[in-house]
Sequence to fold (474 residues):
Amino acid sequence: MEYKITEQTVAVNELIFDECVEQPIDTEFTLPDYCPDISRILKCRVTPLINSKTVAGAGLTVDGTANIHALYCDGGGEIRSYEHSVSFSRSVELGGGADNAMVSVKCKTDYMNCRAVTERRFDVHGALSVYIKVYSRNNTGVVVDVDGDGVQMQKELIPVTNTTGWAEKYLALTDELEVGQGKQAIRSILRSDARAVCSECKIISNKVIVKGELLLTTLYCGDEDGLPERLENAIPISQIVDIEGVTEGCSGTVNMDIVGLEVKPRTGSAGEARSVNVSVRARIDVKAHCHTEIPLISDAYSTRFEISAVKSDVVTERLIEDIRENYLCKKALELPPGSVSEVVDLWCDSYVSSVRSEADTLIIYGTVLICLLARDGEGSVQYYERPVEYEYRHALPQAPKEMRCEPVVAAVAASYTILSGSELEARVELSVSAEALDVARINAVTSLTVDEAKPKAAPDAALIVYYANGGETV
Fold:
């Protein structure tokens, strides 16, 4: 008789590259004529941005920009600011083909030293850590059924989450934002930060609709008394990303990164700058997946003919939780006595150090770097920074056997309360985005052949007793 063997494809995201490389930043730059001389450096902040990721053959090239933001005081004690950008490019060998690869690149500042060579010139030396992960999508064929007389199979329904596609799209946003009533006109921009947050991801046929907002914070010097003023704005984001093959039954996850930011004051007809022109370039990374069950066969046997079954380790992933929530981190900061009579500005950068699961709980460990500009009792501006460690916990629907999770944690808001002249309580709102995946490794039948030319001899017995060995399953 004819035996019909049914096969099915399991898509597996195989991690083919996982390394951290160091990118040195060494540069000098001179202030333009319109900037006052340097009296005292407060902070040189470096913001690394990844502009592009290109896979060619067995190689990956990462292009980025290190934005160096120098905050300093001039001879009169006023806060001044200047930005200088340094481009960098890093290439790595992946050690094999990376067709249809999904590339994840994260970058943070390792260290940065800045000094004033002259009253007009900065000298900057430091290094960035570039974390690179590359996944290759491999399709593995497995046997899910055999239709024919005498074939016995040991089956198990395995729930899996198949990645059906991923895509990235670059978005350019421009807007003009007004300074609100009661605020001074703009003399100069001191600091600008932007974060993109996704609030909705909806999938239709071959398309993903992404909605969110761009959170923009701008600190500027007022035109009347030179004191700093703060602007906070939210710009809506709505985009359609094409991913071939996705359907309404799929679900999706979105991460958005800022890859370019420019904020410039705009002077109106009255001669005052009461608005800013904002130009933002963002990258939207979308991953679509569908949930299904696959009847994997761990063993097969024929009572009539000789059977040849090839087994291989099949790795499957199942999404058990898609986390999108905010987490409040609070910490009392100890500062030198009498150092804080007024807070000029407070901002934060966040980093994830490790992630693990404990029973049915996801735990993310990280650090928030709290940066503070303050005036002391004599009116002099001082800069302080304090690292604050956090531990974020989230209850999962069930305990994973082996978890894979690459969370993204961003500081989206910060506030403070002055407790005394040497103590301040900082409150940082962190946006947590994380996919918790349960990874299963199953030894399954990937190929099977029934040899009808080799029938088995009928046993000359009324009863056969088989004693199983240790570890065997029936």
Notes: The mean pLDDT is 89. The longest strand covers residues 423-455. The chain has no helices and 19 strands. The two ends are 26 Å apart (CA to CA).
